[in-house]
Amino acid sequence: GGIITQTPKFLIGQEGQKLTLKCQQNFNHDTMYWYRQDSGKGLRLIYYSITENDLQKGDLSEGYDASREKKSSFSLTVTSAQKNEMAVFLCASSIRDTYAEQFFGPGTRLTVL
Amino acid sequence: GEQVEQRPPHLSVREGDSAVIICTYTDPNSYYFFWYKQEPGAGLQLLMKVFSSTEINEGQGFTVLLNKKDKQLSLNLTAAHPGDSAVYFCAETSGGNYKPTFGKGTSLVVHP
After folding, report:
1. Residues on chain B touching A41 (C-beta within 8 angstroms)
2. B-chain residues near A107 (CB < 8 A)
């Protein structure tokens, strides 16, 4: 088995601030994902990385940057936090296969004051 | 883009009752389907992965049905208990990319 760790668990920021969320996995998976979860809207894909040196935009990439530092880690940056924004950011990983199921971390809960 | 409609968004049942969640998908090329469970404060956890060639799958306390003709995927919890209370998501992929399509989730509450 393996585990996905997301840090921090809770993140409180100020409007306009640049905020970074981190994700680590020890599954030895090639592919990693960042999703945003808003109540009633399901999961929206922000960025994904098929292999260690790859970076792909998802459907909600505007306002975010991502970085795949190494095979086991994938970071997400909110470039300018929006006032009153509240969301959960979920990191996931999978084997390198378009049919593969994903393994999810516990999430980072963002609140912007 | 392709969509998955999941219903109902909220479901409340008594312990021992059945609970049914249905997803309707639009992509005729959808081939792999997933059901995930999300408990409070946690990430999504895979319940079951089904293939388009298999129509009925049984897990521990639940059944997944795939109706290819109507493009519907259902999750049936046969005798729900309070530990089943969670948000459930369906997802599908045609396998053409690394972007599975998720439903919007169903929040299930099972009352003792």
Report:
1. 104
2. 41-43
